[in-house]
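Sequence, please.
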């Protein structure tokens, strides 16, 4: 009879240990996920802080000079101006007005493109571009001639 009692107590003790072990594992996993999420938010806040300001891109090829200026504001709006100059004095200027969101290292810009060309053509159309921020450089966008932007 005493041996049965010890056996019963041993089963109860092992069952409790199993549940405590499982509870500990779940608690540890939950803490780890919270810590990883907090690191992700801090990284995005850091990128947003670094992103705010004016970025420049430049390209010269085939007698054509192109300048792009992108300004990201802290209220998650921005502007972009692309100016092109040709050797014959041809000049075009395009303006982009957008809102942006940050997801990891990806910056998504959505807004409108307004352009005026030397031949009198005026453009007003939706605009969308995706940039990547990494190590103080901004890359991507929709321009074939300029893919890297630096903050100055």
């Amino acid at each position: 009879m005493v041996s049965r009692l010890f056996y019963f107590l041993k089963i109860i003790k092992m069952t409790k240990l199993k549940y405590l072990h499982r509870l500990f594992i779940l608690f540890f996993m939950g803490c780890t996920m919270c810590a990883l999420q907090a690191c992700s938010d801090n990284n995005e806040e850091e990128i947003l802080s670094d992103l705010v300001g004016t970025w420049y891109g430049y390209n010269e090829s085939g007698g054509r000079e192109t300048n792009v200026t992108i300004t990201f504001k802290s209220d998650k709006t921005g502007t972009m101006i692309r100016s092109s100059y040709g050797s014959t004095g041809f000049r075009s200027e395009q303006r982009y007005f957008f809102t942006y969101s940050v997801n990891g290292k990806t910056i998504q810009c959505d807004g409108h493109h307004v352009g005026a060309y030397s031949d009198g053509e005026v453009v007003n159309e939706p605009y969308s571009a995706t940039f990547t921020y990494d190590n103080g450089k901004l890359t991507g966008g929709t321009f074939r001639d300029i893919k890297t932007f630096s903050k100055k």
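Helices lie at 2-51.
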